[in-house]
Write a structure and sequence with these properties.
By secondary structure, the chain is α/β, with parallel strands linked by helices. It is 19% helix and 20% strand. The chain is built from eight helices and 17 strands. The strands form three sheets. Strands 9-8-7-6-5-4-17 form a seven-stranded mixed beta sheet. A hairpin with a 2-residue loop joins strand 5 and strand 6. The protein is globular. The C terminus is likely disordered.
Amino acid sequence: MAAGNSSELPEGATAATSDGLTHSIRRNGRFVNPWPGWALPSFTGTPNMLHLMWKFTTGSGDRSSIPSQEVLDTTLPVVTPDFSSPVPADGMRVTWLGHASVLVQFENICVLTDPIFSQRCAPFQFMGPKRYRGPPCTVEDLPSVDVVVISHNHYDHLDYNTVKDLHKRFGERVSWHVPLGLSSWMKGMGCENVVEQDWWQEERVKNRDDIKVVFTPTAHWCKRGPNDDNMVLWGSWCVIGRKSRFFFGGDTGYCHGFKEIGKKYGPFDLAAIPIGAYEPREFMRSQHVNPAEAVQIHQDIQAKHSLGIHWGTFKLTFEGYLEPRSKVKEAMEAKGLKVADFFTLDHGGSKVIPISQDTSAFEPTVEKETAT
């Protein structure tokens, strides 16, 4: 089915539908989370507010302990990506470019997720969170990119300079798949080949009818300016070929939407799932999963292999800078799962994932509806 039916509902309405899927909700022009108990992170809405404010003000409980560049070169290396070798016909090659930026190549298509090559994830490059691990390459170093997917509009996932550079290099050869509410911003950047999607809306890649791109739910929020709270939707992405399935988790708290994604589109050959930026837990829980929840998503969506993302790049929160990597391993072991199936990479590192030869992933027709 096609979705594209974001609902404008009154206060108190739910997103329950007869298809068993959770759909997006928009109230008074702004999207809201349909997940029970979800609340926008805030100091005032958090128990022990004064204690939490003290933590952020003083850094009390900050265990990030980011060392010198010399130490980082050993513990969290940045390597130059190798895009020259061919991708095996029976494989997917994934390259981690830092934070939530991932390059995935399969079935003669190249997909880039939430690209950021700037030094800071902020409105300006002279202030705001700065990378402690630089990008492993530049936009000019990338192979030809066919599709870029954007999960939401926060500055660490939608970067002005990177979008400008990608458009300058690739022009309309790139198909930008973005959430509802973001197309006007993209077109303001000069990008015309923009596909705006609602949760569960399925679209084909321009000139590649064999590749399906689906926007799917997450638990998060959007804000880029002082008065634009949640005027843009947020979500995850499924990119489905004739024999390959890729899932990109974007940025999210845990919600039952992942079980819905797994039931409808799983299993996935490869998933990129966020594992970092989760402490202090009482503030981050609704917007960022911790490693144990990331492993639960890995199971929910029926991923065969998962790459840990959204860590090791910007100092955003209080957990130890290497903790996400070790905690994912612990969570996999605790569930009796094969540790190697949920892996991490060096910045710029790549891995080839085997894919099955099952062609049932591809459905020849897709209904379309225009979202309003």
